[in-house]
Amino acid sequence: MTGLDTLRPRLPSPLQELSDPRFARHGLRLLLKRDDLIHPELIGNKWRKLAPNLTAAAGRTVLTFGGAYSNHLRATAAAGRLLGLSTVGVVRGAELADRPLNPSLARCAADGMRLHFVDRSTYRRKTEPDTLARVLRAADAEDAYVVPEGGSNPLAVRGCRALGEELAGRANVVAIACGTGGTLAGLAAGLASDQRCLGVAVLKGGFLTADTESLQRRAFGARCGDWTIDDRFHFGGYARTTPELEAFAEDFEHRHGLPVERLYVAKLLYGLVTLAEEGAFARGTTLAAVVTGRPFP
Ligand SMILES: Cc1ncc(COP(=O)(O)O)c(C=O)c1O
């Protein structure tokens, strides 16, 4: 019993229509699927991915991985505090151990997460059994329940299927920003057969189709749902931005009063506006954009 039910998630998350001439003039409706409102601390896809894993951890220490500004590490730390679970965060970058914690890691630590810093080469090899065993030993967490970077394991992917089910019949095209592809993998599996899903990659490299397919095979046994990935809107890669993207996000916030998370949601919304302008969607299409996060103050 993890007490998740006491956290009162707002599910199904709200679906809101936006009035925006950049879509309306092409005959398109834009809906926002407000997963950022599911829970004040387990925000967006973090709830959907972490909840089944926290249940499976059954009270054991939860150990997971992330970079210095990882949303996933913060959410795991917050879950630990809220549920009384101990958590360990394995952080990329041994050099960070000797520096003051940045605000994101400071929040993790304040929530009780024990931080364990590893060098980048170890971090890259963290899924290899020998390396993982070494990291667990060094972190004094050999019995921990291990959640992968970004939280995307088969349980998490199956948890994200509910997002698709909530959207069934509500939109023709559902769009979502992708890091590991785990949320897309589950979402696409939960949509109805006449809906399609569009993933906007925020990392550079073009590996996401293969990764998402592999996550679906592990979670569901096969590729499923109608989905594609657009690799044009990463703005140089993870956490990279440009003055144009920043101006776009600020303008979106002013127009709609929506706080726009910059690493993922800004790139998704920018991609959708561009695709609408390019005529990528037939008139009469209803689009739903999933708001998977909220800016970290
Ligand atoms: C706000 C936000 N949106 C989207 C994603 C992408 O999720 P995934 O790694 O499942 O593709 C993440 C990463 O976890 C995220 O923090």
UniProtKB/TrEMBL annotation:
<keyword id="KW-0663">Pyridoxal phosphate</keyword>
<dbReference type="InterPro" id="IPR001926">
    <property type="entry name" value="TrpB-like_PALP"/>
</dbReference>
<dbReference type="Pfam" id="PF00291">
    <property type="entry name" value="PALP"/>
</dbReference>
<dbReference type="InterPro" id="IPR036052">
    <property type="entry name" value="TrpB-like_PALP_sf"/>
</dbReference>
<protein>
    <submittedName>
        <fullName>Pyridoxal-phosphate dependent enzyme</fullName>
    </submittedName>
</protein>
<dbReference type="InterPro" id="IPR027278">
    <property type="entry name" value="ACCD_DCysDesulf"/>
</dbReference>
<comment type="similarity">
    <text>Belongs to the ACC deaminase/D-cysteine desulfhydrase family.</text>
</comment>
<feature type="domain" description="Tryptophan synthase beta chain-like PALP">
    <location>
        <begin position="12"/>
        <end position="293"/>
    </location>
</feature>
